[in-house]
Design a protein that fits this description.
With 113 residues, the chain is mainly alpha-helical. It has 2 domains: 33 residues, no CATH class; 76 residues, Up-down Bundle (AhpD-like), CATH 1.20.1290.10. It has 7 helices and no strands. Helix 1 runs antiparallel to helix 2, helix 3 crosses helix 5 and helix 4 packs across helix 7. It is globular, with a radius of gyration of 15 Å. The N and C termini lie far apart (33 Å).
């Protein structure tokens, strides 16, 4: 389960279990401040996880964020390919269009700034 999925579910969780949702939100915020791991690397790791899980929206989001933090297309694609030995060819192949879309979203946004 990707952190993006958890974040998307927080409003629903908050309706039923507000205290648990608040604690989970705080935990996720703490992950943003991990020492020794820069933002690009965090997003590339999240991209690999989303690829392995075949979570297209997560792949698109984390490819976009990694690109915004300075990742090249080769880095985005490379991270997706690196999931193959453990998770097989199919997840990476299926998620490549999502990764490309996220990368291009970031590049297009940068051009319009």
């Amino acid at each position: 389960m990707s952190d993006q999925y958890v974040r998307e579910e927080l409003p629903t969780m908050r309706e039923t279990f507000p205290a648990a949702a608040d604690q989970l939100s705080g935990y996720l915020a703490q992950l943003e401040d991990l020492p020794g791991v820069d933002n690009k690397t965090k997003e590339l790791v999240r991209l690999a996880c989303a690829t392995a899980l075949r979570h297209g929206p997560g792949v698109q989001r984390h490819a976009k964020l990694a690109t915004e933090f300075g990742a090249s297309w080769q880095e985005v694609l490379g991270v997706m390919i690196l999931t193959q030995p453990s998770f097989g060819l199919v997840p990476a192949r299926e998620m490549m269009p999502f990764g490309r879309s996220g990368y291009e979203d970031a590049v297009t946004a940068e051009r319009h700034e």
